[in-house]
Amino acid sequence: DNNSRETMKHMRCIVFLRPTQENIALLCGELRNPRYGSYYVYFSNVIPKPDILKLAGSDEHEVVKEIQEFYADYIPLLAHAFTLNLPRVTSGPGSWERSLLKRTADSLIAAMLSLRKYPVMRYAAKSDLARSLVNSTQDIMKENSHLFEFRRGETPLLLVLDRRDDPVTPLLNQWTYHAMVHELLGIENNRVDMREVAGISKDMQEVTLSPEQDTFFADSLNCDFGEIGIKIKELVERFQEQQHSTTAINSISDMKKFVDNYPQFKKFSGTVSKHVAIVGELSRIVQEHNLMECSELEQMMSVQTSHGEVQQRLGSVLRNPAVRELDMLRLVLLYCVCYEGTSGYNPRQFVDVLRTRGLSEAKCKLATSILNFGGRAVRGGQLFGEQTAVAMTKKYFKGLQGVENIYTQHKPYLIDVVQQLVQGKLKEADFPWLGGAPVVRVNDIIVFVVGGITYEEIKATHQWNVSNPANKITLASTCIHNCKSFLDVVASGGQ
Question: What is the pTM assigned to this prediction?
């Protein structure tokens, strides 16, 4: 798209792009007036035959040497999770933005082709978004059926869920390393912006967190906050030992060894500095803003602890001047979702406290917006489990017995759905099959959530896969949320 580029006929040009109409038009323009000697074109998804003919017609100078499809139209996060980086996909409540529906379905096709899977599909019955997506995906699969003629093993299942069915998980504070960093600092394309951290050095203002490039992060991303403190201490001690060993240079041999090991030493130094800076900032935020008390109350609400006890504690926490505006908001919104319809339910008293604390009217209105987004009348499934007398009695006795960690009582809804699926208890009325149920048992599960997932759900999926190797989950979504990005969506009324 830069017409001022220098012509370099001695150079080869490698082109990697999505096969959109805009990109095809730009590539056709480039081929009509080529600036390089040859072109090797790679598309991240299926390219329609008419577009190939357009490119062929534009290649008058016969500079295109190769065209291939590499199905990489999505962004891998971990071995079991990927995203599309689409923070907003709707034009209104329950209605897809047409171009983004196609974009999402195309990306799912690319993922299925790269993973060599031809799935059967189920979807959340109450979600128009989920229904539209599975229908669109199936249509594209039928149009390109020849691409799926690879050797097939087990029949995989694509299960499409809707973020509206679980508005609780994105509202919670997190206590594992990967999730905490995204919740408190934000991660965008594996990069963490640290510019607002007081006293941060220039080379630490933006840091990369990638498990492929950082072994410490790969080993620690699912560790809880207490474990991270111990791991950081051990990391610093190892670095100090290595640093001490490099100071003893008494011979040419020692000097050569130091030079050979210097790149690795420099990388180790960067790793230590990066993680010490991140954990230091996380610790500051936790201590200064009373996050542990806030999180304990969040977890109590997520498992529907006694309404009266929660009301009393919520009023006290909201009046604490150390609590951040974001945390006050998430607490009130959790109360609205978790206790909607309960006897004595009165969100107005807490919204009034928000006003006295100086929150804007737009933010106070989120107490209504969250119910429009994912209240009882909107969501499908059983977010809080079956509310039968037997189920409620079990929940009561479980509460009496206590929990191992008060900060991790919550279990994401999607894990409950998968558990019911594997046990054969997932109701077809709530999660119908597209085109009828298959005759074979499904063990390979791809869960796609329209409207975003969280790192808590990614961690829970990892834990499920470790415990259930015969029924592994691949988790995917349109984007990755923290509380702030989720509230932006709720405020807009979209998804």
Answer: 0.90
